Amino acid sequence: MSEDLSQLVPFEVSDPACAGPLPSEGHTLFGLDAEALAACMVAAGEPAWRGRQLAEALYRQRITELDSITTLPKALRQRLAAEGWQVGRPRINQVFQSVDGTERYLIECPDNQTVETGVPSDRSIVAGVVETVWMPEGDDGDSGDGSDVESQQSSGARGLASETWDSISNGSSRKRQATLCVSSQIGCAVNCQFCLTAKLGLQRNLTAGEIAGQVLAVFDRHSVQVGRDRVNLVFMGMGEPFLNYSNFISAVRLLVREVGLSPQRMTVSTSGILPGIELFAAEPPELRPKLAISLNAPNDQIRSAIMPINRKWPIQSVIDAVRRVPLRPRECITFEYVLLGGVTDRPQDAAELARLIRRTGLAAKVNLIAWNPGPGINYSTPQPEAVEAFRHALISAGIPAYLRKPRGRDIFAACGQLKCTMER
Ligand code: SAH
Ligand code: SF4
């Protein structure tokens, strides 16, 4: 399987999309931070504080048309438009609705074109389109939905389950809660054997604006009020965020500094890209999401068979890097673990996983995910009894373990099912 590693894109740390020189083409304002917007205004012969006005309009007021930014003088708006500038925020192109309330969106990014990929199952794939998933009640996976146990209990999160997002009216002062699963790349190069996104291969990295734009596009659809509604962000959609590190972290900064979201309600998941974890460890804690590691196996032998990336960065090297991430008070690391029937869900796997996690000495918990099927992938969904026994074995060994509810399986929106599928 070593040939799989050659498909990995080089690890890229340069070129944050919202810092440094302005884009020479495209003229897209969305994705630039306040500083870059100020530089843009100065270049246009305007005072730098117009950049702050623009940031306010794009990220707080969520205005999507240049002409509607009325804090800018009309003549300036017209001049910017004549020079080819536009807001350029990604737009929702299609919505697929699940019986369980989950929504999967195809979100249009600038290089939109339809292609056939010829992957098994022959579904049509849209390049330049990225997927985002909205789960109105979260998925019960502790921190898989970006929230921690204490706050779930104190806010009565479980109690809210019978009330849907939309049944709490917009005018109400009640907090609404949901989880939004965001993509960082179109497709993925990592080639995990159980994941449908892997079938796409890597199409391209998303820019910071395309990553943050998914969030605001969906916020608008559901009239999310930042500061009132509780929306957890999980960077667990298509792609490997740590193979697009600079754009991913620039998007986080935009969402924290400009949009006003809390990084403590964000979780990023990685398959274990070591240089990315090292950069992440150096981020200021107040500006970074929580970390989840897709462990998925109790030892290197099984992990290498299902995740070829493990040959490059085996379990111990990933854990050593994770140990260097300074944790905030009460923060812990999440290990995600996909249960593959007969492969990773056996009693001996649970025992070995418990030993492995205990040995790390990390404040950690496990999010179990029963494998979601996809065409052309030959694994089986674990038996419900095996899942429960697995979770129970971890808990008995003193390791907090949660089962993530499969959400939106009927619309190909569940973990590992994102492949821009056009059918329901
Ligand atoms: N690339 C990142 C984030 C996206 S995948 C990563 O791998 O961590 C998000 C989660 O979905 C990962 O934990 C992954 O192991 C899991 N996953 C992938 N395919 C799956 C499938 N078919 N069923 C259940 N979980 C899956
Ligand atoms: Fe990529 Fe994550 Fe899927 Fe692996 S599980 S192929 S890293 S999206």
Number of DSSP helical runs: 12
How many separate domains make up the residues?
Answer: 2
Helical content stands at 25-40%
Structural class: alpha/beta
What is the straight-line distance between the termini? 33 Å
Unreliable runs: 1-25, 112-126, 142-162
Strand ordering within the main sheet: 1-2-3-4-7-8-9-10-11-12
SSE run: HHHEEEHEEEHEHEHEHHHEHEHE
* Ions and ligands: S-adenosyl-L-homocysteine, iron/sulfur cluster
Number of strands: 12
Shape: elongated
- CATH top level class name of the largest domain: Alpha Beta
CATH superfamily of the largest domain: Aldolase class I
The averaged pLDDT comes out at: 84
- CATH architectural category of the largest domain: Alpha-Beta Barrel
Describe the structure.
With 424 residues, this protein is α/β, with parallel strands linked by helices. It has two domains: 27-86, DNA polymerase, domain 1; 91-411, TIM Barrel (Alpha-Beta Barrel). The protein is 29% helix and 19% strand. It contains twelve helices and twelve strands. It has helices spanning 34-43, 49-60, 74-82, 149-154, 208-221, 245-259, 274-281, 300-306, 309-312, 315-323, 347-360, 384-396; strands at 91-97, 103-116, 124-135, 177-181, 185-187, 202-205, 230-235, 266-270, 290-294, 333-339, 364-370, 401-404. The strands form two sheets. A ten-stranded mixed beta sheet has the order 1-2-3-4-7-8-9-10-11-12, with helices on one face. A two-stranded antiparallel sheet has the order 5-6. Helix 11 (347-360) links the parallel strand 10 and strand 11 (364-370). Helix 7 (274-281) runs parallel beside helix 10 (315-323). The longest helix is centred in the middle third of the chain and has 15 residues, at 245-259. The radius of gyration is 21 Å and the shape is elongated. The chain starts with 33 loop residues before the first helix and ends in a 20-residue tail after the last strand. Residues 1-25, 112-126 and 142-162 have low confidence and may be disordered.
